[in-house]
């Protein structure tokens, strides 16, 4: 999800944080190693991205990004502690140093990447805002929603996108805001609102949690660009690089045909220079990142390549059954692309 703050609020936050908001800048890796784990901010419950199963184990794409960082730093993907955060809480938690990285279906925007003191490290999932309705409403397009009551999560850019879309199409609507996505979905299910709007990935996730998911449908319109990805505090390029290249390692692995099953054998036998550099068989690229030589091997072995984390969490191996679409690799019709290790 995505948070909106006025310019005044941003300035107020910055002044309150002062230098304290960047207290850990330049020292995050040392702090992480000292405490022995990565503190990762995630969603407070979004299937496919970050949620707790019946045993309390956190699962999802965003969760796997956190595990990948831990695998790179410690050689142990389990060395992560999770902080479930609401949309309102997430940025303050990162700014204040409560968490080391925010991996919480958060949209990369210009204001967040500048005025809020954050840096986005990449895109884990290309998304866009859509609409979920009950089929009995008899609507097949968002342009038929004139006069609708719309549930929307507070403190997100979803509210602004909703207003822009209805205004530009000369439609009227009544918004009902909630603090959490679960509250919004329950309101749709109870009939208090006609439609629920959010990122399409979140709509698919909320749909499977409804009592009768087959009675609901996501409309075809996508009304915004929502590149979702991890964020870190500004001022610590060392930590920024580690988080960024943990994602890039999984993307490059998929492109090069390396997965969790073949990575160890490939690292020992490869004659491909691109693979050799990625897996530490050639060069000192781990050292450049202040990571062990086999940092990428540990990520791929313990967490998987990008295809593996996509398919098991939101793709064909999950309940969501979301197609790769824009999240396919660049050489397969999608947008996912990682620079080479060299």
UniProtKB/TrEMBL annotation:
Keywords: Signal, Transport. Residues 1-25 form the signal peptide. Pfam families: SBP_bac_3 (PF00497). PROSITE patterns: SBP_BACTERIAL_3. It comes from the Bacteria. Residues 37-265 form the Solute-binding protein family 3/N-terminal domain. Belongs to the bacterial solute-binding protein 3 family. This is Amino acid ABC transporter substrate-binding protein.
